[in-house]
Amino acid sequence: MSEESSHRQILRSTSIIGGAAVFNVLFGLVRTKVAALLLGPAGIGLIGLLQSLMTTASTVSALGFGNVGTRQIAEAAGLEDSAAVAAARRALFWGTLVLSVLGACVFWALRDVLAARVLGNPSWARDVGWLAIGVLMTVAAGSQVALLNGLRRIGDIARVSVLSAVLSTLLGVGTLLLLGKAGLLLFVLASPLASLLFGHFYVARLPKVRAVPTPLSQLFAQWRVLAQLGAAFMVAGLAATVGQLVVRTMIQREMGSNALGQFQAAWAISMTYIGFILAAMGTDYYPRLTAAIDDRSAVNRMVNEQTEVALLLASPIILIMLGGASWIIGLLYSSQFAEAVAILRWQVLGDVLKIASFPLAYIMLASGSGRTYMLAEGGAMAFFILLTWLGLPRMGIQATGQAFLGMYAFYLVLVYGLARRRFGFRWTARVRALLGVLFVAALLVHVLAGWYEAAGVVVGIGASALFGAYAMKRLIGLSGSSVAIVKKLRSLILR
């Protein structure tokens, strides 16, 4: 694939998945705004804690089958081996079915312990028990997306994302408006329910498996691969979700529910505003990288291309977020969330390093280096927890944002070193320059905004405009056509 066509593929996938992510973010902001107005910081903090608990349990229950299933299906599809694709699909379906039910049962059995240890309130045991349904639905929905991803059904994944966002917003907001705080649990369960329903709809529309029935021995072989690799990926994913749960529990116990709500407000924005870029990596870049993983030069080229495009697309947004963090928090939440502004600025600064590290981290996923990926993810999250623990008594809730920046500085150095050792990887001079200039500009806006907010806004807007103009020029050059890039960007906004 030529450089031009490769960049076009990245932009095409980003426009499709990114357009869906934009809708997802917008509807997510509606849900968050309503919850913030009706429940306040304490309610937002509790929602975040319940979601984190459900996500952690879902990560354990899924056993990494989704990640590995995507890899197995993409690899078989790349070889055009219909029997192997059928075997991978059947193994993923039956394996996930068993794991989702088992995970939900275990979670329900532990509801008393979880309510007491995580929420610090045994009276929440019944409500925590209902989250078992959310665990089952999350695991099942994850397997559906994994199947669509492995088959490169990018359009279907985008449709699932958009329709799920619409339905979960209607259900979540409706329950809060009708029931108030009593509808909080249904608000949390709305997202996995919507994802499961629409995921099932689009999976059911896939062409039926035409291959002969897969022998049980072949299914066991598939499950062995899924379990061996998946366990490592599960531990890696668990490190992230448990780490977030530990930090939330730490904040809840040491600083109270109001501080937890401030952290959750900043965290929710940080995890969503560049979601279209990170989602495109998982949907398009990961399967392509898996198919080319034995070609060292192709891997190095693809990582550099993905990193450059991701930084180009994210740079204007990052600078606007840094300069206007106070306005954004006020718009999306309320004046009660003023403490979240400083947290968000630190996290957005860390997002520059996060975007640069993700293309490198996918090398470990694509090559099946589960243990290495597990150690990298676990080490980074342990560093985040340590920095938060050390910083909370000294810096207050702002320490969580600083810890986020420190975590991704550590993670970027780590994954770059691993990619360098395994594939001889190096960033191109253009990528190094782009990353360096963006980080310095972001740091300048961050400092100015903290010193004098108006100065941060002005400089942030100016820097965003400059980076946006450069990004447009560069992307037009890479796509080979100004008409093509305009269409892609238009689809990113309107799709």
TrEMBL record:
The keyword Membrane applies. Pfam families: Polysacc_synt_3. GO terms for cellular component: plasma membrane. The chain crosses the membrane at residues 12-30, 42-65, 91-110, 130-148, 160-179, 185-204, 225-247, 267-287, 308-334, 346-365, 372-391, 397-419, 431-449, 455-472. It is found in: Cell membrane. It is a multi-pass membrane protein. One of its GO terms (biological process) is enterobacterial common antigen biosynthetic process. Keywords: Cell membrane, Membrane, Transmembrane, Transmembrane helix. CDD domains: MATE_like_10. This is O-antigen translocase. The lineage of its organism: Bacteria, Pseudomonadati, Pseudomonadota, Gammaproteobacteria, Lysobacterales.
